[in-house]
Amino acid sequence: MKEQVSKLKLERYSKNRVENLSDGVFGFAMTLLVLNIVIPESSIISSNSQLWQAISGQGRAFLSFAIAFFILASMWSLHVRQFENLQEIDRRFVFINSIRLFMAILIAFSTGIASSYEKLELARMILPINLLLLAIIGTIQWHYAAYSKPPLLEGITSEEKNMHKIRAIIFIIFSLFTVVASYFVGEIAFAIFILMPIIVRLTGVKKTKSSV
Q1: Taking the model in full, what pTM does it have?
Q2: What whole-number distance in Å separates Cα of residue 161 and Cα of residue 177?
Q3: CA distances from residue 12 to 6, 48, 69 in whole angstroms, order as listed
Q4: Cross-strand pairs, 115
Q5: Terminus of the chain with fewer CB atoms < 10 Å: N or C?
Q6: Quick one: the chain helix, strand, coil %, rounded to 5?
Q7: Average model confidence (pLDDT) for the chain?
Q8: For residue 39, what are the contacts with CB-CB under 8 A and spacing of at least 6?
Q9: Which residues, at least 6 apart from 151, have a Cβ–Cβ distance to it below 8 Å?
């Protein structure tokens, strides 16, 4: 029994370094997004009208940038709330978190594909698929933290766990719908998330501190 307790302690880590790494990755990923917006070459711009035409011609790139930026900001906010009730983390949690960060930084690549090949259906779907995978991994991470033995999360009631499950299911359903709708309408499909707070309220699900 003592050996098991000792082994468990060896597998637990302070959450601070993982938090710092996660914040850095999310911040870097959000910064990378702006590189998908190309600055017009000065050699071909000689008037205000030409500059405006060049800038306005990147409307799709600006839209993709804005969508991806606020997606990552939202995902970072959820990630922060998840860590609030964590006291320690273990190797499995760190591994799942690494996959989550991989999916987060991949958003920059997905956004570039979406804005560069906007007429191709596959390109339209890559960003929503990336978001869906990020949402699924985030849910898996929260579930592991809440239901591992002993649980990594503290101060979470059974009611809060059930509310989280419902919120996670709703978010994944919305993400799936966005993947399908993006095939036909591109980034406009993300407008469906405007309805999510309404659906959550209708289902009676309240936001918890550690929701993902």
Answers
A1: 0.82
A2: 25
A3: 10, 60, 33
A4: none
A5: N
A6: 80, 5, 15
A7: 84
A8: none
A9: 145
